[in-house]
Write a structure and sequence with these properties.
Pfam families: Sarcoglycan_2, Sarcoglycan_2_C. Helices cover 30% and strands 15% of the residues. The protein has 290 residues and is α+β, with helices and mostly antiparallel strands. Among the domains are: 124 residues, Alpha-Beta Plaits; 34 residues.
């Protein structure tokens, strides 16, 4: 499941309890857990300096893992050196108009990660703004960034797509939240099923499912056994209903077949005189038969 969205002013300052129910698809074992989220005011955790990175060798699912995101924030913190650093937004490149990668060479779709800090940008992050690197980006060449090696071991950053935003230089204007397509209407409090669910006995259903096909198979087996065993006419009844001339003809065929098989076994006997050669094959003289 995915939980997304932003809390409203009504949820600020009080804990929000989210009840999560999960079950095992194989054993159907059910577990329930309460997730408590404490919503605080954003004014207490101001992060006016925000930088958005485009990571080419990651998908959004991989980036959401706590270990991978922690490694990325550690690399950014090593370059930026802020006191407080948090991830603000993670967006797939497909949501920004990117193309679906080809399924070759383990290509990734890419992900945008926005982080915020409480100190101004470091000199390394501002290197992408110098004219030389801007010229290289316009020529579709990689810019020269001194701190790229600190990311290269795990993350391939596209430095031409980095975005640096300074919130202190922007005039903040309060906009009233208008409920529209972006905010769903309040549907009331969800009431999950009771924890004391009655266990259902599937033994009778199992017996019915197993007994009905077995009974049908047994009936078919008995019918087939009756047809094959009890309905046979026998050899005597067959001979009584068969004309005598047909039986004699069939018996003669069997005797002839038997005689031919016996003659085929005795092929090594002397050849008849009529089949022996009369002339010598080399001299042509008359050879008397043996």
């Amino acid at each position: 499941g995915v939980l997304y969205g932003s809390p409203t002013v009504e949820n600020m300052g009080k804990p929000t309890i989210i009840e999560i129910t999960a079950y095992n698809r194989r054993t159907f074992e059910t577990a329930r857990h309460n997730l408590i989220i404490n919503i605080m005011s954003a004014e207490d955790l101001l992060l006016p300096y925000q930088a958005e990175f485009f990571i080419k060798n990651m998908n959004v699912e991989e980036m959401l893992a706590s270990e991978v995101l922690g490694d990325f924030l550690g690399a950014v913190k090593n370059v930026w050196q802020p006191e407080r650093l948090n991830a603000i937004n993670i967006t797939s490149a497909l949501d920004r108009g990117g193309r679906v990668p080809l399924p070759i060479n383990d290509m990734k779709e890419g992900v945008y990660v926005m982080v915020g800090a409480d100190v101004t940008f470091s000199s390394c992050l501002r290197e992408v703004e110098n004219p030389q690197n801007q010229l290289r980006c316009s020529q579709e060449m990689e810019p020269i960034i001194t701190c790229d090696k600190k990311f290269r071991t795990q993350f391939h950053i596209d430095w031409c797509k980095i975005s640096l935003v300074d919130k202190t230089q922007q005039i903040s204007t309060y906009q009233e939240v208008i409920r529209g397509e972006g905010i769903l209407p309040d549907g009331g409090e969800y009431k999950p099923p009771s924890k004391n669910l009655k266990s259902r006995d599937y033994y009778s259903d199992f017996l019915i499912t197993l007994a009905v096909p077995s009974a049908v198979a047994l009936v078919l087996f008995l019918i087939l056994a009756y047809i094959m065993c009890c309905r046979r006419e026998g050899v005597e009844k067959r001979n009584m209903q068969t004309p005598d001339i047909q039986l004699v003809h069939h018996s003669a065929i069997q005797k002839s077949t038997k005689e031919l098989r016996e003659m085929a076994k005795n092929r090594e006997i002397a050849w008849p005189l009529s089949t022996l050669p009369v002339f010598h094959p080399v001299t042509g003289e008359i050879v008397p038969p043996i």
